Structure formats: C-alpha cells, structure tokens
C-alpha cells in the first residue's frame, strides 16, 4: 500500500526531553518497550527542546545527526519515544532513507506480537488500521496518482481514494465481527449476574505483576513474563472467598502512559470486564521509583473507560525487591482495607490479600432474618439456596420458614425488584 522503506530489527532510538509536562516520556520505559518488541538498540539519541519541531519533531541539526548515524551504523529503523504526525514521519524518512516508527506504532507492533486469541488479533488489527488511516492523509506522492494504462485512463479513483475505501471496508468488517464477540461476552456477564457472582478485576500498569498474581491466586498458567504487555487477552477464573462465596477474577491488559486512543477504542470489549467489575484490584509495582506516576496513568485510563467510580483495593506488589517491607494491610479511618503489601513472585501476603478482599466485598453485604409464609417458601428458599446465602433455617408453629440470610447489598436490591413478594415485609425486626 505504501512506497516506504522496509522495516528491520536494527534500530536507533530517539528520546527528547521537553520542558512541557504534557510531552514528557520515560526513557527507561521506552527501552523496555523496544526490548519487548525484540528490537536491537544500536544507539539512543537524546536531546532537549522546549516544544516539538514542526517539520522533523526534533530540530534540523538533530535530524541530520540521526540521518548520519543511520548511515554509519547501517540502521534499518528509527524509533521515536513520542507520537509523530504523518508529515513528520514522511519528512524524517525522506531525510534518513529508512523506516521511522513512533511510540504508538511501537506499542501496536508489540500488541500484534502478543495477540493470541481470535478476538485479540481482531482488536490489534482494528487499532493498526485506524492508526494507518491517519497516515494516508497528505500521504506519499504515489498515492495521489490516478490509475493509468489501457482502459484505466481518465477521471476516476486516485490510489489514495482506493486505499481509503479499502481501509474503511476492512474496519467495518472487523467491527461487525467484534460486535459478535462483544455480544458473547455480554451473555457471559449476564449469566454471572443472574448467578449473583461478584467479579474482581485486576488492573495496573504494564509489567506490574498482574498475571503472576493471577496465577498465584487461581493456580492458573497464564503467560507471565518480565516484559511489557505480556497479557493481551482477558482471562477469567473462579475463586472462593470466605464469607462471600464464589467470585470471578479477571486478568486484563496492562495500561501505559499515553496509551494510544486507537488501542483504548479497539480493546473496548476486553476492558468491559473492568467496567462491570464489583471491585478493582489495582496492582502496583512498589519497587518502581516511578510508581506514583504509573498509578496516575492507570487512573487516567480508568476514567477514559468510565471505570473510575468502581471501588478499588490497592495491591503494592514486588516487596521482595524492597528492603524493610513486610506483608501487611493498611486500613482507612473507617476501618476499611485500602492497601495490601504483597509479593506475587514469592507468594508473600496472599492470605492478607484474600482477607482484605473478603472484608471489602463483605462490607457490601447485608444480613437479614426473614419469616416467610408457606405461599412463598418454595421459590424464595430455592433462590437463597442457589445464591449460597442461607446461614440458618427453621420453621415456627404456624408453618412459617424462619431463615437467616447473608448476601451482597446489590444482590438484595436486585432480588427485591425481581420478586413479586415484598421482601421487606418478611424481615423480622
């Protein structure tokens, strides 16, 4: 589709420090991203600017320096730790005579390598096509040519218009297929809601240790590695919580600073597991000196996907990499657990995590003693039994069922709306 230079694995990295806070990126994280993509870093070019240069993003002198390095080191690709405009990419490629990739393109490439399921591959392709469609605007010169040759001369579709149409058609086809997947996921969520099973979703910055923690808790074998975006496809497993009963734990894709909007949109179906969770376990790499900035980046993405109002339990992970840190639970002034310090790798503090999670979910529980007349006993007892909410039961001399129940407040509210009988009338004061 493009007359562009071939990509390769031998790369020159470019990282610019800006005085504008909104443009700031982290060099160590960038190098991890490049390593995760399987690229060989020949040299890192750094510099400082007040604002991006309109033509080359870097200044003209720095751009020429990069072009000279490409020739000297036989580099095959230049990777920027920043988002470039289509015009800046084109100008740099013309000057340096090799492929130029920005931060968004690098993340998309990693996602393409990591996608395992059919849904994951579709989501990555959708994000790539949306990103590519912006690169067609004021694109490479051959795209403006009209088709030539016998039978094709004269007014008609330019190559650019053809490419745009093909992209639109492919995006529509992927969206239709993803819509089917989303409906299947929605059916699963509805089934869990009908069974009154709470969902706990793991969220956090990429490489914070979510999958390792997930494997420890559920004894699953989800792929976990010390690299960025090891997990793309959501995985659900059942866990048993004392006093709460059955719950679903969901492992989801990691977030990153300045996560491309195309990715957020493409992974909407995946992130819905986070949007509809009862509580979020926000896993944080406590040993990372940038953990506060990473936490803030996750909060921004949670707000983007409308999941910022869901209750959160912070999990400070990797305490085995820290001195004088031991497993513990931190409580707020109301006595509610807010933070748990653990090591997923060493299995430290997992009992405390279960305790804190149980307390948080249990704090949303209600307990009632009910006296149910014979007319409603069969159905209601069956409902309470299936929800595993019965604590004690007996019958009085008039044949009423005396039953003690314990369940989530949200489940009780849903049950009240669903049942014909006025459940409040059966509560024994």
From TrEMBL:
Binding residues annotated for GTP, in chain numbering: 204-211, 229-233, 251-254, 317-320
Domain of life assignment: Bacteria
Binding of Mg(2+), residues: 211, 231
Key words, A-Z: Cytoplasm, GTP-binding, Magnesium, Metal-binding, Nucleotide-binding
GO molecular function ontology, one term from the record: GTPase activity
Intracellular or extracellular location(s): Cytoplasm
Cofactor names: Mg(2+)
Keyword GTP-binding applies: yes
Gene Ontology CC annotations of this record: cytoplasm
Occurrences of domain Hflx-type G (ranges): 198-365
Pfam families to which the protein is assigned, alphabetical: GTP-bdg_M (PF16360), GTP-bdg_N (PF13167), MMR_HSR1 (PF01926)
Gene3D superfamilies linked: 6.10.250.2860, GTPase HflX, N-terminal domain, P-loop containing nucleotide triphosphate hydrolases
Main localization (coarse): cytoplasm
Family matches, as InterPro entries: EFG_III/V, G_HFLX_dom, GTP-bd, GTP-bd_M, GTPase_HflX, GTPase_HflX_N, GTPase_HflX_N_sf, P-loop_NTPase
Family to which this protein belongs: Belongs to the TRAFAC class OBG-HflX-like GTPase superfamily. HflX GTPase family.
Functional description taken from the UniProt entry: GTPase that associates with the 50S ribosomal subunit and may have a role during protein synthesis or ribosome biogenesis.
Assembly and binders: Monomer. Associates with the 50S ribosomal subunit.
Protein name in UniProt: GTPase HflX
Organism: Vibrio ezurae NBRC 102218
